[in-house]
């Protein structure tokens, strides 16, 4: 089953949006198969955002993501990588449609509430960076 990495960033955790974001993915029909509230080390932050290393905002990005806990998740389901991107909305909340997570709750591009893998390759890379194999479960829906 397709899997993706979704993270509620420090602003989303601080603003009490973890439940709202989890609920949106649950209601859509996706399955939560891994989750942890964690402080991000600088090494992990720099590895996660390696593609932005040369951007002027890289330092700010790493400072922010390591500033207070994030809620890291693994979601599974058909087409979850692309659909999760639609559910999050555009990177800049000012341009994100209402009804998306960033459109409904975000204001600035630096504090845009949530991160999600942008392709199958990113999902594979990010999941292996953030989660050990034994931290990701799988289960049939029986109830
Ligand atoms: P994210 O999906 O986590 O991936 C890279 C992040 O860089 C992005 O969300 C934004 O939060 C952040 N970002 C992109 N552009 C800028 C910018 N101009 N200034 C600060 N942060 C940015």
From TrEMBL:
Needed cofactors: Mg(2+)
Record localization: Cytoplasm
One BP term from GO: CTP biosynthetic process
Keyword Cytoplasm: yes
Cellular component aspect of the GO annotation: cytoplasm
Molecular-function annotations in GO: ATP binding; metal ion binding; nucleoside diphosphate kinase activity
Bilayer-spanning residue ranges: none
The Nucleoside diphosphate kinase-like domain, residue ranges: 1-138
Catalytic residues (positions): 115 (pros-phosphohistidine intermediate)
Pfam families: NDK
Keyword Magnesium: yes
Record keywords: ATP-binding, Cytoplasm, Kinase, Magnesium, Metal-binding, Nucleotide metabolism, Nucleotide-binding, Phosphoprotein, Transferase
Swiss-Prot/TrEMBL catalytic activity: dZDP + ATP = dZTP + ADP; a 2'-deoxyribonucleoside 5'-diphosphate + ATP = a 2'-deoxyribonucleoside 5'-triphosphate + ADP; a ribonucleoside 5'-diphosphate + ATP = a ribonucleoside 5'-triphosphate + ADP
Quaternary structure, from the entry: Homotetramer.
Family: Belongs to the NDK family.
Function text: Major role in the synthesis of nucleoside triphosphates other than ATP. The ATP gamma phosphate is transferred to the NDP beta phosphate via a ping-pong mechanism, using a phosphorylated active-site intermediate.
Protein name listed in UniProt: Nucleoside diphosphate kinase
Gene name of this polypeptide: ndk
């Amino acid at each position: 089953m397709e899997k993706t990495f979704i993270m509620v960033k420090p602003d989303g955790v601080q603003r009490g949006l973890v439940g709202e974001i989890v609920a949106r993915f649950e209601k859509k029909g996706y399955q939560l198969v891994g989750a942890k509230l964690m402080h991000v080390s600088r090494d992990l932050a720099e590895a996660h955002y390696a593609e932005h290393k040369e951007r002027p905002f890289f330092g700010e990005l790493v400072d922010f993501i390591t500033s207070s806990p994030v809620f890291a998740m693994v979601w599974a389901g058909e087409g979850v990588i692309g659909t999760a991107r639609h559910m999050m909305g555009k990177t800049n909340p000012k341009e994100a449609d209402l009804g998306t997570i960033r459109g409904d709750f975000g204001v600035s591009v630096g504090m845009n509430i949530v991160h999600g893998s942008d392709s199958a390759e990113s999902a594979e890379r990010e999941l292996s960076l953030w989660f050990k194999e034994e931290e990701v479960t799988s289960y049939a829906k029986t109830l």
